[in-house]
Write a structure and sequence with these properties.
Blueprint (H helix, E strand, L loop, with lengths): L31 H21 L6 H15 L8 H13 L4 H15 L6 H11 L1 H10 L7 H18 L1 H8 L6 H7 L13 H21 L2 H4 L3 H23 L11 H14 L2
Helix pairs in contact: 1-3, 1-4, 1-6, 2-3, 2-4, 4-5, 4-6, 5-7, 6-7, 7-10, 7-12, 9-10, 10-12, 12-13
């Protein structure tokens, strides 16, 4: 029996876009013919993320909507998930694997149902599905060798953890979701409830610094990425993103994400572009 056409939209766009990210998405450095496919992947991941982060939806509703996005990705009637439909067209046009899209959907199902993480390895397992596929998709689109994946995975995981630290108070307040691993909280003598405070306690600062230490190790691994990338534009963009990760890590080391959102400035983006163009030459 044919599947009935669904008309109610399953996507719940938050209004966030490429300019809200800590890194460039399909910038002028990327080959012109590939940018539309980079943007399609970003839109797909962004809309799935918006479902998982929607505080008005139940966990079961979120999972059902994400399942529907995957069904449309697989060829179901596309009317209710335009981002998934466009992603399917992009994957077919470029002969790319569907696996990276399936992986990010797996991560957002976790976001809908898993609210706490036990240790660093548990958090890295989440990043394997939430972050790594983004870099892998971009590398595969350019036909890069898979030896680029390990430093790319490290870079994407570092950016993911940095974003978790930026939003740690909001995630807890709006979604009761805490990415700060329980092991680090216990080691520093911090409590989850401290995320409700107006500023970080010494114990919570200890947790943040421990996670920044782990992120620093990831960034160190990521520095090998640009040299492994053959496509000139992508190589430069990777160098820019590595520098942006370093800058954001330094800002979080000095700033307090509970007191105010720690974020990159226009000067950071301009400086990273200059450094990235030089390092990626």
């Amino acid at each position: 029996m044919a599947e009935p056409l669904m008309t109610a939209a399953v996507e719940t766009p938050s209004g966030k876009g490429r300019t809200d990210e800590n890194f460039p998405v399909g910038s002028f450095l990327i080959r012109r013919d590939l940018r539309v496919h980079v943007h399609a992947f970003y839109r797909f991941a962004r809309n799935a993320d918006d479902i998982a982060d929607n505080p008005r939806l139940s966990a079961a509703d979120k999972v059902q909507r994400l399942d529907r996005m995957e069904a449309v990705l697989d060829g179901a009637a596309p009317a209710d998930s335009p981002a998934a439909a466009a992603m399917r067209e992009s994957l077919i046009a470029t002969n790319m694997t569907f696996q990276h899209c399936r992986d990010v959907l797996r991560a957002f199902r976790l976001d809908a149902t898993k609210l706490r993480y036990s240790d660093w390895d548990d958090l890295m397992e989440y990043c394997r599905y939430s972050a790594s596929p983004v870099g892998r998709q971009l590398l595969d689109l350019h036909g890069e060798a898979h030896d680029t994946w390990p430093p790319s995975d490290a870079l994407c995981s570092a950016l993911q953890v940095l974003n978790h630290l930026q939003d740690c108070a909001l995630d807890h307040r709006n979604l009761d979701r805490v990415y700060l691993p329980r092991q680090q909280l216990e080691a520093c003598g911090a409590r989850i409830e401290e995320l409700q405070a107006a500023q970080s306690s010494p114990a919570l600062r200890c947790v943040i610094d421990r996670l920044l230490d782990g992120t620093g190790a990831l960034i160190a691994t990521a520095r090998a990425l640009p040299a492994r990338v053959k496509a000139a534009g992508l190589r430069r963009e990777c160098a820019v993103i590595v520098d942006l990760a370093e800058r954001l890590a330094r800002r979080l080391r000095r700033g307090d994400p509970l007191a105010r959102r720690v974020k990159l400035t226009r000067g950071d983006f301009a400086g990273a572009l200059f450094v990235g163009l030089w390092r990626g030459r």
